[in-house]
UniProtKB/TrEMBL annotation:
Region described as Disordered: spans on this chain: 1-56
Protein name: Uncharacterized protein
Basic and acidic residues composition bias: residue spans: 1-34
Length: 56
């Protein structure tokens, strides 16, 4: 069981490093384009629909 835990820890560390590396690459590409994620326009919620007219 101890060996399995060690193998899982190694796998987790390897994947964590891969994710960090990919994140750094993506941030580098954003800098090359001149816009960062925080500078991109944000989606806005649509305006609320007006109340329907009351039927008589």
């Amino acid at each position: 069981m101890g060996n399995e835990k060690e193998t899982l820890r190694e796998e987790i560390e390897r994947r964590r490093r891969e994710i960090e590396e990919l994140t750094r690459k993506e941030k580098g590409q954003d800098r090359e384009r001149g816009t960062s994620f925080s500078e991109q326009p944000k989606m806005q919620a649509p305006e609320l629909w007006p109340d329907p007219p009351e039927e008589k």
